[in-house]
Design brief:
The chain has about 775 residues and is mostly helical. The protein is built from 43 helices and no strands. The protein has a domain at about 40-100 and about 110-205: Leucine-rich Repeat Variant (Alpha Horseshoe), CATH 1.25.10.10. The longest helix is centred in the middle third of the chain and has 29 residues, at about 345-375. The two termini are about 60 Å apart. This is Transient receptor potential cation channel, subfamily C, member 4 associated protein a.
Length: about 775
């Protein structure tokens, strides 16, 4: 040992404080280099005890030595468990403080006991103890379930308190796969699931589910509670990694990434693996739609509460429960709602039922998230068929009033990102996941009519009959045995709560998205009238004009919804004009549109397309009347206003900044020019763009930018994997005309009056000619 630690001479060791630091330094260096100690507990026990008090190690290195010595291959682990319990008591308080104090930065000074435990090889030793039965063919006594639970709990505590532990465990594929085998034991399931979730969250490469031994048998062995918890793990394995808001988020970068990775991603492969497990989707549907009364009995439920500490990594659930109790106390005119009052009030006896509700809500959040991801994947049609067959939508409809929207929940702080793993209450998360599921379920799919009940379907048929138009084929083909039950369908219930929501509530964003998805695709007059008769248009206009709503996200969702609701519908424009009955209201409406064209351009597109159709229907007296009276149509009919929108739409985007969110601006500008081309006015519009450039003293910039955007458009939308039906359905313009118009605009013949090149003077040609080069 002298050769490793040096002599005891003052010149080598200096003060005792330096000795403590030298021991730690040598251990750290050996762990990094692989030379020297394999674990800190190889140091003599006497030396460790001598240094312990001054270094404030609290006996952890010595206890680790005892743990190592008592866990040899032929051990019955009795003493091992006793030592581990001692260690656990030293570490658990640090983990609890980490959970309850807003996640401090994991460092040595904050959590010294956990840091010391890891430094002296505690993490590696626990992994070795857990996996030891798999490393020998000798018949050994089965490891005690409580010992396994405690090992897992200590590892989880180390993960959340010590930087790098989670990553080091994630790098061990053998250990990660081994953990899944522990999930077969119900007694250790919750601790295992919690640790796996933490590990997979930092793993560099997504785990492949097909590599888990007997995954199908494992999942089929789970009870409903375990399956719900397992969904929390699955969410990490089936979701594409979040690329954030950097350059990778642009369409240019996404297209390049897709070109490099032509094969299905690991997330897509994992989705297929799950769908191949017999009964998996059916069980998720049952979990998502079961009533609270059908869940685990109270006695079993209260036993489960003991495990919540390891299941949750924050105190949000308990906060939610206390808030429920506080709300009930205020409702009962209780003067105080502090802990002492709650402890002595009758509310205490009712709290378990509230806990049971939140417990069930937490399960459903995870299940709905998994179903939502699967609905958005490549196997969408297969998933849709199963969700319809297992009556997911009618089941959710039956839960709507009693559980999903049983009361108002404030949501002003909720973020609208695609990944909704936000630190919000279970009730808020539940509502958001429910609305996202409805959005994914309805979007461009004929199964959207399952959101209605039989009476409402009959109403749609009656609307079509009265208007003397054929019923939509998807409506005719809807299986009436799979639609919603009761007096109201799910869509109608959603409209009811949507109108009650406060102006800036973040739920409005998701509610509007869900309703908009019902309208998206080929425009259906009957669908629009169904919603117009329920006052949706007036409600949207109130929110945009009169409510004082400032949220850009909410306003964007309402612009998009308004566009789908009004498109090609003369009755909608008539209703619009009735509500917007003053110049002041109209100017407020225009101001909201002009404040952010990225948010409102879909509505602009709807107005332009509708105006074009109405102008070709002048034999219809009703259309002529609305055309002459509607302030919105009159405004868009003026060519200078259409040109103004065109200038700004082209100017606010370029190829380098195009994203899924703003690419609609490019398509809206194309719609304006396609309609102009139909009427032989394309040269007029292109010349107006040229004159605008010279008036603004930047000749060539606008047209060169547009030229580059259209070159990108060709690469993006003419890709064989790209679905162009959305553009065609939303505009009622054949995609062949879209392609043809873009080709004409990109023509190289400078004598063509319809080619952009003809309007750019030679010195200003192709300012960004290499922009699209790979």
């Amino acid at each position: 040992m002298a050769t490793l630690l040096g002599s005891e001479s003052p010149c080598t060791w200096g003060k005792r404080r330096s000795r403590n630091r030298n021991i730690i330094t040598r251990i750290s260096q050996s762990q990094i280099s692989g030379r020297g100690f394999s674990r800190g507990t190889q140091l003599p026990e006497a030396l460790l005890q001598e240094r312990d008090k001054r270094a404030r190690w609290h006996g952890i290195p010595v206890l680790l030595q005892k743990l190592y010595e008592s866990s040899h291959l032929n051990s019955d682990f009795t003493q091992t468990h006793a030592v581990l319990k001692e260690l656990s008591s030293l570490l658990s308080m640090e983990a609890m403080s980490f959970v309850t104090e807003d996640r401090k930065t994991a460092q040595e000074s904050t959590f010294p006991n956990t840091y010391t435990f890891d430094l002296f090889g505690g993490v590696d030793l626990l992994v070795e103890i857990l996996m030891r039965p798999t490393l020998t063919t000798l018949k050994k006594p089965k490891m005690n379930d409580d010992l396994v639970k405690d090992c897992l709990s200590v590892l989880y505590n180390c993960c959340i308190c010590t930087e790098g532990v989670t990553k080091s465990l994630a790098a061990r594929d053998d250990f990660v796969l081994f953990l899944f085998t522990l999930m077969t034991n119900k007694k250790t399931f919750l601790q295992t699931a919690t640790l796996i979730e933490d590990i997979l969250g930092v793993k560099k490469e997504m785990i492949q589910l097909e590599g888990i031994p007997n995954l199908s048998g494992l999942v089929q062995s789970f009870d409903q509670q375990q399956l719900a918890n397992f969904c929390r793990i699955l969410s990490v394995t089936i979701s594409e990694p979040d690329v954030g808001n950097d350059d990778k988020h642009t369409l240019l970068a996404k297209n390049a990434q897709q070109k490099r990775n032509a094969s299905p991603s690991r997330a897509e492969v994992n989705q297929v693996t799950l769908l191949n497990i017999p009964g998996f989707i059916e069980r998720l549907c049952k979990l998502a739609t079961r009533k609270v009364s059908e869940a685990t009995g109270t006695s079993n439920f209260l036993q489960e509460l003991e495990d919540w500490y390891t299941w949750l990594d924050n105190a949000l659930v308990l906060d939610a429960l206390m808030q429920m109790a506080t709300d009930e106390a205020e409702h009962s005119s209780t003067e105080s709602s502090d802990e002492s009052t709650l402890a002595t009030s009758p509310l205490r006896h009712r709290l378990p039922q509230s806990m049971k509700i939140v417990h069930e809500i937490m399960y459903k959040v995870e299940v709905l998230y998994v179903l939502c991801v699967l609905l958005m994947g490549r196997q969408r049609n297969q998933v849709h068929k199963m969700l319809a067959e297992f009556r997911l939508i009618p089941g959710l409809n039956n839960l709507f009033d009693k559980l999903i929207w049983r009361k108002y929940t404030s949501s002003n702080h909720v973020v609208h990102g695609q990944n909704e793993n936000c630190d919000c209450s279970p009730e808020i998360s539940f509502k958001i996941q429910f609305l996202r599921l409805l959005q994914s379920f309805s979007d461009h799919h004929e199964n959207k009519y399952l959101l209605l009940n039989s009476q409402e379907l009959n109403e749609l048929s009656a609307i079509s009959l009265k208007a003397n138009i054929p019923e939509v084929e998807a409506l005719v083909n809807t299986d009436r045995s799979l639609v919603c039950d009761g007096k109201k369908g799910l869509l109608t219930r959603l409209l009811t709560v949507m109108k009650r929501e406060p102006p800036d509530s973040s739920f409005r964003f998701w509610q509007a998205r869900a309703v908009e998805s019902f309208l998206r695709g080929a425009t259906s007059y009957a669908d629009q009238m169904f919603l117009l008769k329920r006052g949706l248009l007036e409600h949207i206009l109130y929110c945009i004009i009169d409510s004082g709503c400032k949220s850009r996200d909410v306003l964007q969702s309402y612009f998009d919804l308004l566009g789908e609701l009004m498109k090609f519908n003369i009755d909608a424009f008539k209703r619009f004009n009735k509500y917007v009955d003053s110049e002041e209201k109209f100017q407020t409406f225009l101001s909201q549109i002009n404040s952010s064209l990225v948010d409102s351009n879909m509505l602009v597109r709807c107005i332009v397309l509708s105006l074009d159709r109405f102008e070709s229907q002048t034999e219809d007296v009703k259309v002529v009347e609305v055309l002459s009276e509607c302030c919105l149509l009159s405004y868009m009919a003026r060519v200078e206003n259409r040109l103004s929108f065109l200038f700004r739409l082209i100017n606010i985007i370029n190829v380098q900044t195009l994203t899924q969110e703003n690419v609609s601006c490019l398509n809206t500008s194309l719609v304006i020019l396609m309609l102009a081309r139909r009427r032989g006015k394309l040269p007029f519009y292109l010349n107006a763009l040229r004159e605008k450039e010279y008036a603004e003293k930047y000749p060539g910039c606008l047209l060169n930018n547009f030229h580059n955007l259209l070159r990108f458009w060709q690469r993006h939308y003419l890709n064989k994997d790209k679905d162009s039906t959305c553009l065609e359905n939303s505009s009622c313009i054949p995609f062949s005309f879209w392609k043809e118009t873009v080709s004409v605009l990109l023509g190289t013949d400078r004598t063509s009056l319809c080619a952009i090149a003809s309007y750019i003077d030679e010195p200003y040609m192709e300012l960004d000619q290499d922009l699209l080069e790979d």
